[in-house]
Amino acid sequence: MYASREDIGYDFGDDSKAGSKPIKPNPNIDGGWAWMIVFSSFLVHILIMGSQMALGVLNMEWLEEFNQSRGLTAWVSSLSMGITLIVGPFIGLFISMCGCRLTAIIGGILNALGWILSAYASSVHYLFLTFGVTAGIGSGMVYLPAVVMVGQYFQKRRALAQGLSTTGTGFGAFLMTALLKYLCTEFGWRNAMFIQGAISLNLCVCGALMRPLSPKDLSEKSVVRGNSEDNQAKALSHSTETIKSNGVPGDEPEKKEEATTEEVLERVQHIEIGGNSGSRRNMYGLRMLKTVSHLTLTVRKGFALWYSSYFGAASLFTNRVFVAFIIWALFAYSSFVIPFIHLPEIVKQYNLSRQDNVFPLTSIIAIVHIFGKVILGIISDLPCISTWNVFLMANFTLVTCILTLPLMQTYVGLAVVCALIGFSSGYFSLMPVVTEDLVGTKHLANAYGIIICANGISALFGPPFAGWIYDITQKYDFSFYIAGLLYMVGIIFLLIQPCIQKKQPRQKSTEEAQV
C-alpha cells in the first residue's frame, strides 16, 4: 500500500533513519492492545459521528418546536458537526501537551454536558451555544485522539484498522437514528437529548482505553516504515533532508534542556531519599518543584512540536499536495452531510414517508457505509494497489451520486443512489492513511487536525446553505448541484498537484544534465 507516496510524488519525511541493527517490534503494534484501540475508536465513532449523522431526526423536532426557518434551524446541526472538526488544530495542541487519553476523557465530559444542557433549550439560539459549541468542542476532543491512536498502533494494516474503527459511523448512524426516533416518540425530544447525554458519558471510558505508546515504541514503528520504504526515501532524499535540516527550531537546545531538567529531578529525588532529617516543608517544596518541572517540560515540548508543524521552517503548508488536500477537504464534507440533514425533509416532499418509515434512506447510507469502509480498507492494504488511487476513485463515485440524487423522485431510485453514496463515502477510512503517507507519523495529529478542520468548515456552511437555497427556490435540487460542482473543484486540485510534483524532479535533472 506504500505505493501511494510514490504516486503522490511528495514525502514530508518521518524523522527516522533505518538502523542497521535488527529491532524487536513491540507486540502491541499491529496486535495485542492495538485491537482494543480499534474497539475504543469504533465506540467513539458510534457515539459521536453516528449521533451527528442522525441529527435529521432532531432537526425536524426543532422545526416544529421553535417554528424557525430551515436555514436557521440547520445551523444547530452544522455547528455541532463543524466545530467537532474545526477545533482539530487546537486539539492537536492538547494532544501534544496532555496526550490522547486525558484529552479524550475531558472531551467526553464536555460532550455529555452539551447534550444534557440542550434538553432545557428555550430557543434555537440557546441550542447554538449548548449543542453546537459545547457538545461540538467535546466531540472534537474525543474524535481526533481516537483517529490518531489507531494510526500510532498500526503499521502493516493501517487502512484495515482505520476502516474497522470508522465503521462505527455507519453503525452509529443506523442505531442512533432508530434510537432517537424511538426516544422522541416515547419521551419527547427534550428527554431524548437528556438520555443521549447520559449515554455519551461512555466516551470517558473509551478515552481511558487509549493507552499511550512510549517514545521508544513510536521510534521503532518509524524505523520499520523507513525500512519498508527505503527505495522511495532514496528517490526523495533531497526533500527529506531539507525538511530534517529545517526541523523543530532549537531541537538540540531542547535536548540539552531535557537532560538538564532530568539532572535536576534526579538531585531532587536524591535529596528526598537522603533528607529525612530535614523539615517536611522542604520535602513538599521539592516534590512540588519536581512536578512543576515535569509539567513545564511536557508543555514546552508539546507546544514546540505544534508550533513548528504550523509556523516553523518544517511547516506542513510547505507540502503542496497537502495544501491541495486541504482545499479538497473544504468542499468535500458538505456533500456527504447535506443528504443526512435534509433527506427526511426531501422524503416528506415527495410523499415517500410510508416507504421511508419502513426502511429510512439515511439508514441505507449508514449500513452500506459500513461495508464501504471495510472493503475499501482491505483493497487499499493490498500490495499491488495504491491507496491514493482508491481514494480518488471513491471520490469520483461520490460526486457523481451527489449530482444525480436530485433527479431521483422515486423511493427505489433514491435508495440506489443512497447506497452508492454510502459505499463511496467509505473513503473516510482512508483519509488518516493518506494523511500519514503525506506527512509521516510524527506530524499525523497536527496534519489530520488541519484536514478535519477544513472538513468542519465544509460541514458548518453546507447544510445551512442548502436550507437557505430551499427557502428561496422551494427546492433542494440547486443545493445538491452547487455542492457537487464545488466538490468536483476540490477533486481537480487533488489531480493537478501530484502531476506538478512529479514533473519538478525531472525538470531539475534535465537542467543538471545540460550543465
From TrEMBL:
<dbReference type="GO" id="GO:0016020">
    <property type="term" value="C:membrane"/>
</dbReference>
<dbReference type="InterPro" id="IPR036259">
    <property type="entry name" value="MFS_trans_sf"/>
</dbReference>
<dbReference type="InterPro" id="IPR011701">
    <property type="entry name" value="MFS"/>
</dbReference>
<dbReference type="InterPro" id="IPR020846">
    <property type="entry name" value="MFS_dom"/>
</dbReference>
<dbReference type="InterPro" id="IPR050327">
    <property type="entry name" value="Proton-linked_MCT"/>
</dbReference>
<feature type="transmembrane region" description="Helical">
    <location>
        <begin position="75"/>
        <end position="95"/>
    </location>
</feature>
<protein>
    <submittedName>
        <fullName>MOT14 protein</fullName>
    </submittedName>
</protein>
<dbReference type="Pfam" id="PF07690">
    <property type="entry name" value="MFS_1"/>
</dbReference>
<keyword id="KW-0472">Membrane</keyword>
<feature type="domain" description="Major facilitator superfamily (MFS) profile">
    <location>
        <begin position="37"/>
        <end position="502"/>
    </location>
</feature>
<feature type="transmembrane region" description="Helical">
    <location>
        <begin position="386"/>
        <end position="405"/>
    </location>
</feature>
<feature type="transmembrane region" description="Helical">
    <location>
        <begin position="33"/>
        <end position="55"/>
    </location>
</feature>
<dbReference type="GO" id="GO:0008028">
    <property type="term" value="F:monocarboxylic acid transmembrane transporter activity"/>
</dbReference>
<feature type="transmembrane region" description="Helical">
    <location>
        <begin position="102"/>
        <end position="120"/>
    </location>
</feature>
<feature type="transmembrane region" description="Helical">
    <location>
        <begin position="411"/>
        <end position="434"/>
    </location>
</feature>
<feature type="transmembrane region" description="Helical">
    <location>
        <begin position="321"/>
        <end position="341"/>
    </location>
</feature>
<keyword id="KW-1133">Transmembrane helix</keyword>
<feature type="transmembrane region" description="Helical">
    <location>
        <begin position="126"/>
        <end position="148"/>
    </location>
</feature>
<feature type="transmembrane region" description="Helical">
    <location>
        <begin position="361"/>
        <end position="379"/>
    </location>
</feature>
<feature type="transmembrane region" description="Helical">
    <location>
        <begin position="478"/>
        <end position="496"/>
    </location>
</feature>
<feature type="transmembrane region" description="Helical">
    <location>
        <begin position="446"/>
        <end position="466"/>
    </location>
</feature>
<keyword id="KW-0812">Transmembrane</keyword>
<feature type="region of interest" description="Disordered">
    <location>
        <begin position="229"/>
        <end position="260"/>
    </location>
</feature>
